[in-house]
Specification:
14 helices; alpha+beta; six-stranded mixed beta sheet; binds adenosine monophosphate; 26 strands
């Protein structure tokens, strides 16, 4: 059986890991990086870039570059590129395809299965979208696993003693906190809480705003509408923030940032850690609520925590570490790498799911649970699930932090006399009124027998699998007929859309090779034309007139074909024509080259 890779599909960066000889290892990308920027770019030349190359060209191609697509997963967001509409799943699939390819290059074998991690706070639609992205990328997604659970998994195997740990995960775009019990071969999530819209990007924004203010105060210019300047400021802000995780002060140097009255404007300012801490203190404070909620949902006091694990790049910020210390009274663990432990945990789970037992010294309890079973992972649902009932009330069916998998049924009835259909709105969230929660699906149950209000008996069943993915069904007990119901989440990709995206991805992979060959051919042909023209010049009159005429004609013909050449539309026939013209020129110009 081929290897199952573990993928941390992050907002800012992604990471891929695989178990080799019983140990999870990180797979480097072709640039040698241990994490890959979650960035996709469509260049003007018709190329598609992922990761480091996409990041490098982002400033010069802002319209063609897509960042932080994870923030759009499970929404109706889409982007138009090269005249085609792409949903978040399809863009995420491009990142996954790159990670899959990197893993294949590293392992020297095909990889077709993966475990992918998601924030614990991802709702059903976001999880489904992540699974769909995997499918589009040609991966059989064996499991969707929560990031904190995955971190605990990689930690748990290195430090086998049973304990309750807190995973405090502050990444680029999301914050999650989980209380997890690590026992003998069992990892049980006791509670999870978080904020889907809090992360490093918010810190960057604060620093970027500060830089804009500095421009105004020191140079008397408003750069906020200068797109190119703002791109550079955003990058400088992130850089400054990162430097302040180790240095007390950092210099923000932005030469030729913009222009004022035709003169270049430069910026050179110093930001101190104390000032940075003040700027972001309210953001860091926002993590306190979820920490307290998670502890109280788990029914434990901070003193009962074994360890506190920090996950996500933003936990490198000193003020964040101090906050965690203050909230828990514990020194957070330093011996796990916050960028890599999530992918490693996913690789460990992937390995156990593929039937391998782990043989690391520390994890004998996991290995002892037997082949194919490996670890027992008990995860929970992050948000309560309800359906809307009379008066717009959200009637709770499954409470948050219920252990997965979940199977729950409840009987409902009609509200009006002789009602033959009911609309069922499925909601996720903790608020008492339906309108304040997120609607994740709706369906209509038809064919109910005409009766007085409250007489028909409609059994609504919620099934949530170990990936946290929900299926809802309903049965009219009165007629005994079971209705087949599909959840029509507006944001979900339909089966046919997914199939189409899979076909596109396959076709693109084929085209990708063709484009690569085409690019090589066109640059060889261009350099041949340049070389020939130089050789003609050098030869001057020392060349036979007939040969000269032929060389010129062949060179013109090749130039004409190259001028028409478009990488995004190239066909095999175009390439054959260029190849032929190139061969002709090579042979006619052989005597002077
Ligand atoms: P993640 O989603 O876990 O990859 O985290 C990415 C976030 O971590 C981004 O917002 C980064 O700017 C941030 N980050 C990475 N390294 C550091 C650092 N040394 N100090 C502060 N933030 C960092």
């Amino acid at each position: 059986m081929s290897k199952v890779i573990g993928i941390d599909l992050g907002t800012t960066n992604s990471c891929v890991s695989v178990v080799e000889n019983g140990e999870p290892i990180i797979i480097n990308n072709p640039n040698g990086g241990r994490t890959t920027p979650s960035i996709v770019a469509f260049t003007k030349k018709g190329e598609r870039l992922v990761g480091e190359p996409a990041k490098r060209q982002a400033v010069t191609n802002p319209d063609g570059t897509i960042h932080s697509v994870k923030r759009h997963m499970g929404t109706d967001w889409s982007v138009r590129m090269e005249g085609k509409e792409y949903k978040a799943q399809t863009i995420s699939a491009m990142i996954l395809m790159q990670l899959k390819k990197d893993a294949e290059d590293f392992l020297g074998e095909t990889v077709d299965s993966a475990v992918i991690t998601v924030p614990a706070y991802f709702n059903d639609v976001q999880r489904q979208a992540t699974k769909d992205a995997g499918r589009i990328a040609g991966l059989n997604v064996k499991r969707i696993i929560n990031e904190p659970t995955s971190a605990a998994l990689s930690y748990g195997l290195n430090h086998g003693e049973p304990q309750k740990v807190m995973v405090y995960d502050l990444g680029g775009g999301t914050f999650d906190v989980s209380i997890i019990e690590i026992g003998e071969g069992v990892i049980e999530v006791l509670a999870t809480a978080g904020d889907n819209h809090l992360g490093g990007d918010d810190f960057d924004e604060r620093v970027a705003n500060w830089i804009v203010r500095q421009c105004r105060e020191k140079q008397n210019v408003d750069v906020s509408r200068d797109f190119a300047a703002m791109q550079r400021i955003k990058e400088a802000a992130e850089q400054a923030k990162k430097e302040l995780s180790t240095a007390e002060t950092t210099r923000v140097l932005l030469p030729y940032l913009t222009q004022k009255n035709g003169e270049p404007v430069h910026l050179d300012v110093v930001l101190s850690r104390a000032e940075f801490d003040r700027m972001v203190s309210d953001l860091i404070e926002r993590t306190a609520g979820p920490v307290q909620n998670a502890l109280s949902d788990a029914g434990i006091a901070p003193s009962e925590l074994g360890r506190v694990l920090l996950v996500g790049g933003s936990t490198r910020i000193i003020a964040v570490k101090n906050k965690v210390r203050q909230l828990t009274g514990k020194d957070p663990s330093h011996n796990i790498n916050p960028d890599e432990c999530v992918a490693k945990g996913a690789a460990i789970l992937g390995d156990t799911l593929s039937g391998n037992t782990l043989t690391t010294r520390e994890n004998t309890s996991a290995a002892n649970t037997g082949p194919g079973q490996g670890l027992l992972l008990l995860d929970v649902i992050p948000l309560s699930l309800s359906i809307e009932t009379v008066g717009g009330v959200a009637t709770r069916l499954v409470e948050r932090n219920t252990t997965l998998p979940v199977h729950y049924s409840r009987i409902f009835s009609t509200a009006a006399p002789y009602q033959t259909s009911v609309d069922i709105h499925v909601l996720q969230g903790e608020r008492p009124m339906a309108r304040d929660n997120k609607q994740i699906g709706k369906f209509r149950l038809k064919g109910i027998r005409r009766a007085q209000a409250g007489v028909p008996q409609i059994e609504v069943t919620f099934d949530i699998d170990t990936n946290g993915i929900l299926k809802v069904s309903a049965k009219d007990l009165d007629t005994g007929k079971e209705q087949s119901i599909t959840i029509m989440a507006d944001d979900r990709m339909s089966e046919s859309e997914i199939e189409q995206a899979i076909r596109d991805a396959r076709e693109y992979a084929g085209q990708d090779n063709l484009r690569k060959e085409a690019m090589e051919l066109s640059s060889e042909a261009q350099s041949l034309v340049a070389k020939t023209q130089q050789a003609l010049k050098n030869a001057g009159k020392n060349i036979d007139k007939g040969v000269k005429k032929q060389v010129k004609a062949d060179s013109k013909q090749l130039e004409r074909l190259l001028a028409k050449f478009r990488l995004d539309r190239v066909t095999k026939e175009d390439m054959d024509r260029i190849e032929e013209a190139k061969n002709r020129l090579e042979s006619s110009a052989a005597s002077i080259l």
